[in-house]
């Protein structure tokens, strides 16, 4: 794993949360995106090398909606950038980690992603991210 790619924060409303984080981080939201496969709307902010992803559920049965119902707004996951997501997935499986995805899937911000089950990481949901490179 190369670095923390972003920190994902579950929020009830992007309309309310984006302005708050823009003031807090003294920066503008640089991208919003709907990830239909995850039933989520996202907004990204960057300060220095650090990125924050705000996540709002678009469906009551999405993972983010369930998280918000159970835990309320707050940190949802920590994402790490990797060079080769398939190799990293194999390495983690070989070391006993449970992956929530059998194969990487398209995520937000031009990334292929895979999640590591929080039961293996002391309750922290970990996301692996690999930049999609277009040829």
TrEMBL record:
It is an enzyme of class 5 (isomerase). It comes from the Bacteria. Its EC number is 5.1.99.1. Residues 3-131 form the VOC domain. One of its GO terms (molecular function) is metal ion binding. It holds the Pfam family Glyoxalase_4. GO terms for biological process: L-methylmalonyl-CoA metabolic process. Keywords: Isomerase, Metal-binding. SUPFAM superfamilies: Glyoxalase/Bleomycin resistance protein/Dihydroxybiphenyl dioxygenase. Gene3D superfamilies: 2,3-Dihydroxybiphenyl 1,2-Dioxygenase, domain 1. Belongs to the methylmalonyl-CoA epimerase family. This is Methylmalonyl-CoA epimerase. It comes from Pedobacter agri. The lineage of its organism: Bacteria, Pseudomonadati, Bacteroidota, Sphingobacteriia, Sphingobacteriales.
């Amino acid at each position: 794993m190369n670095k923390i790619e972003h920190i994902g924060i579950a929020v009830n409303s992007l309309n309310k949360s984006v302005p708050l984080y823009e003031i807090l981080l003294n920066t503008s939201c640089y991208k919003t995106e709907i990830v239909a496969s995850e039933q989520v709307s996202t907004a990204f902010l960057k300060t220095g090398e650090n990125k924050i992803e705000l996540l709002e559920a678009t469906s009551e049965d999405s993972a983010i909606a369930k998280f918000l119902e159970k835990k309320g707004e707050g940190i949802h996951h920590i994402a790490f950038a990797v060079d080769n997501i398939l190799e990293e997935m194999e390495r983690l499986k070989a070391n006993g980690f449970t992956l929530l995805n059998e194969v990487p899937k398209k995520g937000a911000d031009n990334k292929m992603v895979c999640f590591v089950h929080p039961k293996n990481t002391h309750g922290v949901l970990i996301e692996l991210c690999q930049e999609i490179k277009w040829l």
